[in-house]
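Worked Example 4.2. Read the sequence first, then its structure tokens.
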Amino acid sequence: MSTRLDLALQEVAEAAGASSGFGDPETPGTATTVHRLAARVRRRRAARGAATTAVAASAAGAVALVGPQLTREATPAGDPDADPGECRSAVADLPSGPRDVLGVELGQRDADDVAVIDPAGAGQDLGTWLSGSADLVVNVSQIPDAGVGATRLRFLLTQDGVVLGTAHEPIAVTPLTTDEVLSTRLEGIGAWTTDHLPVYPLEETDRRWWEVVETSGGALRVAQTVELGLTACDGSGALPPGTYQVYATTVDAVGTARGAAGPWDVEVAADDATPHALPDGFPQDVPLIDGRLVAAHRHGDGWAAEIVTPGNDRGTVAVSLLAPVALRSDHVPADAMVLGPPYQDVVVTRAGVELPGWAVRAVASRTPAGEPSVVYILTARP
């Protein structure tokens, strides 16, 4: 199959460190990216061990990248005794009265780190994810006035109308306005609206930030980042591969779910653990992402390769696999940065992550047929 690998090589050269998912060490988002990266690496390493065990046992079915999941069973029946919004409850039981109105727009961050946000509706999806969590953005413009005051925004991951996963985020009961967010959280961007649109902020932490994003219709919103864990609420681990519907609700001060927004579709990607048939001489000690190898050849004094694999986060996952085998140094060049725990002193330069003998850059791309891929550039090191 022909690929656009040559074009991708040019894009990689221009994108340099930004495309690797690490970002500028001077920007606030970099620390968040590094912490998120470290968590994903730990999940990925655990998943690889589980996958190896499963293959050795000749187990049938696809193994999920994020956990030892085999062929997915049918969605379990809902629990009629579960309270609305709880694990295995029915989405249809969420309160939807006139005082339970919940205004939520939710969006995804694509492989190019561009976020788009929308209300729930046909065709609005939250992407495909490999790493056990989804990088989303959220805007909450209205919360229910029923109950004893909303204290948490709860995300529900469902199939066939049954809640299979939940995640919680503390939320303020007093809104800000869009103008307040622009002037106090996003200084320097400038006002782009005269509307005093209400925004109910989630708890602000060093792992969350504000940004301006567009809807698919071109409208602008202020939104916060959310990392949605794709984990089963029954304690069984990662959700099996498949398509899930995401709903949002709020939980009041006494634990009662109020309101409902959704659904949006999100895809948990299946892992393709097929061994790569690499050409002679390609460095065998460079960890590559799972998927279908479509190109691998010499590139100057180094190598280039392209692997078709799904996932909005495929670039980040590919880079995260390099970190455990990377070189470490307490000397950081002026044009480089280092990762945080658990990969202290891993140096990342514009040439990529430094491994023994190679600097490796991994960047999300696409083939001419539109298949999502990761392009690797290996540059020889002295």
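Now turn to a second chain, presented in exactly the same format:
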Amino acid sequence: MEEESTSSTINLHEAYRKDFELIKNGAGMKKHQTQHCFPQQHTISIGKENQILMDMLTKAKNVAINLARTGHRVLDINIGSRNVRLTISPSNRCNLLGGAMIKISRVNGVEEKTMAANIDGVQVEWTTSTRLEPGQFITR
């Protein structure tokens, strides 16, 4: 059973590799281009017009890999118009990131603190929850 899944994975990766080689050589897109409809269009590139987005994706991927290698669990990656934001699972390792508190909320006897650290231009966030004792409630 395991051999079948491994061989299909290898075949899938091989198929992707062949597709990317065709695209790189320009042969993969020739079938889909109609020269008489778009005569000025000779090459197609997703990187030129979207270079900022591609750079953000690369940064997010690199930071996520580094965090995973150091034992953090990446929960979410959000690429917005302003910056890249990664959400990680809170743990004792998060203290080593040296973050600052960016949000605090107290609801139903639970205090939630959202911390953030900047790693290579990517905002890494995690949220810790603490149960408050009855004397710690703030009333306004």
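Notes for the reader: The helical segments are 2-25, 27-30, 51-69. The chain has three helices and five strands.
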